[in-house]
Automatic annotation (TrEMBL):
The keyword Membrane does not apply. The keyword Nucleotide-binding applies. This is Phospholipid/cholesterol/gamma-HCH transport system ATP-binding protein. It comes from Flavobacterium granuli. One of its GO terms (molecular function) is ATP binding.
Length: 258
């Protein structure tokens, strides 16, 4: 009874928050392959929303549509209350500056040191910062992920977990209001995966970010999610907390929790 009340209280708290992302009737096909068939979802301010689904269910396409990396065929994508599907490139870029994207492989530039990777990103987004401000921002971002000592290392000198952390530091350095995580624990051992999941929670708490997390890692989903949605054949088939979905009577939903 107490646990149920806590879950209900959390739901009410989230529902009362400002909507930051809202997708309405989103469709996307690649030739004859229909990937999204009318997605409707919202993400609230400060919420961690996890998206689950089998390969090919449209998870990654959904978040790529949110930043204009993939153009939707139909529907609305409202970010900060603005429909980005109707924006020209210049205005869309102003929205993108407020969004961080952590790619599955970290997407670091192999020819640059960690410092240079972060500096390149920061200068691109904030070209008028002084060298002192840039250095302070780099050190703060690395401190957030616990890797200040790696500042002059090359990506090839880093482990998979360290590369993910540096990728997150590069995302955090622009102080995004939204972070999109694409398989943040993919390819990592269970201990490192948990460290990354805990880091996602730390970022949420410290920066009040709205995060959308694509993952196959149920341990990550359980630890990080305020709410979970499950995609199946291009539509949302179920939604709820981890505990609620784990108890679902739908076999396809329960299969994620086995």
């Amino acid at each position: 009874m107490i646990q149920t009340k806590l879950l209900n209280d959390k739901k009410k708290a989230i529902q009362s928050l400002e909507t930051i992302v809202e997708l309405k009737n989103l469709h996307k096909s690649f030739g004859d392959n229909k990937v999204l068939s009318g997605i409707n979802l919202i993400a609230k301010k400060g919420e961690n929303l996890v998206i689950l689904g089998r390969s090919g269910s449209g998870k990654s396409v959904t978040i790529k549509c949110m930043v204009g990396l993939v153009h939707a065929d139909e529907g609305e994508i409202n970010i900060f209350g603005e429909d980005i599907t109707k924006m020209d490139a210049a205005i869309l870029n102003e929205i993108r500056v407020r969004i961080g994207f952590l790619f599955q492989n970290g997407a670091l530039y192999d020819s640059m040191t960690v410092r240079q990777n972060l500096e390149f990103t920061l200068k691109h987004h904030s070209p008028y910062l002084s060298s002192t401000e840039i250095e302070e921002a780099i050190l703060e971002a690395l401190d957030n992920v616990g890797l200040k000592e790696a500042i002059d290392k090359m990506p090839s000198e880093l482990s998979g977990g360290m590369r993910k952390r540096i990728g997150l530091a590069r995302t955090l350095i622009i102080k995004p209001e939204i972070i999109l995580y694409d398989e943040p624990t993919s390819g990592l051992d269970s201990i490192t995966s948990r460290e990354i999941s805990e880091l996602i929670l730390y970022v949420q708490k410290k920066y009040k970010t709205t995060s959308i997390i694509i993952t196959h890692d149920m341990a990550c989903a359980k630890l990080t999610a305020n709410r979970i949605i499950i995609l199946k054949e291009g539509v949302i088939c179920s939604e709820g907390s981890y505990d609620e979905l784990e108890k679902s009577k739908d076999k396809s939903v329960r299969s994620f929790f086995i």
